[in-house]
Amino acid sequence: MTKTNITLKIDSKLVSDSEKLYSNLGISLEAAIQIFLEQSVYENNLPFKTDHTEIENEIARREFNNPQNKTFNSIQKLMDDLNDDN
User: Fold this and answer.
1) What does the domain layout of the chain look like in residue ranges?
2) Which residues lie below 8 Å from residue 25, measured CB to CB, with a gap of 6+?
3) pTM for this structure?
4) Contact at 8 Å (CB) between 10 and 19?
5) Alpha-carbon span 48 to 68, nearest angstrom
6) At 22, phi and psi to the nearest 5?
7) Burial class, 76, CB count within 10 angstroms (exposed 0-12 / middle 13-18 / buried 19+)
8) CA angle 70, 72, 76 (to 5 degrees)
9) Which of 22, 45, 72, 83 could form a disulfide with 77 if both were Cys (CB 3.0 to 4.6 A apart)?
10) Neighbouring residues of 75: CB distance < 8 A, sequence distance ≥ 6
11) Angular region, 4: left φ>0, alpha ψ -120 to 50, beta rest
12) What is the pLDDT along the chain (86 residues), one digit of tens a residue?
């Protein structure tokens, strides 16, 4: 198996706290990340339960705040844009 180096920007306190946690569990942070990735691939999903509503809300917030989105100051202008064939 060929190994690849990755570089991540992660809050230093989170890294420190995670290293302590995994050290107490007898594994390194690198091993914990490897386990996370392997389990993600195995499950073809996040390897833990999530509140999909929160994830969907975050995606919607990011889409809403995207500066490239069109804005309309009237229903008529919105409808005109929707009906535009371009």
Assistant:
1) 13-83
2) 32
3) 0.56
4) no
5) 33
6) -70, -30
7) exposed
8) 130
9) 72
10) none
11) beta
12) 899 999 999 999 999 999 999 999 999 999 999 999 999 999 998 888 777 787 888 888 888 888 788 888 999 988 998 888 65
- Pairwise CA distance, residues 65 & 82, whole Å: 20
Q: Are the beta carbons of 18 and 32 closer than 8 angstroms? A: yes
58: amino acid identity, one letter: E
* Nearest residue to 32 (alpha-carbon basis) of 42, 21, 41: 21
SS (H, E, C) the chain: CCCCCCCCCCCHHHHHHHHHHHHHCCCCHHHHHHHHHHHHHHHCCCCCCCCHHHHHHHHHHHHHCCCCCCCCCCHHHHHHHHHCCC
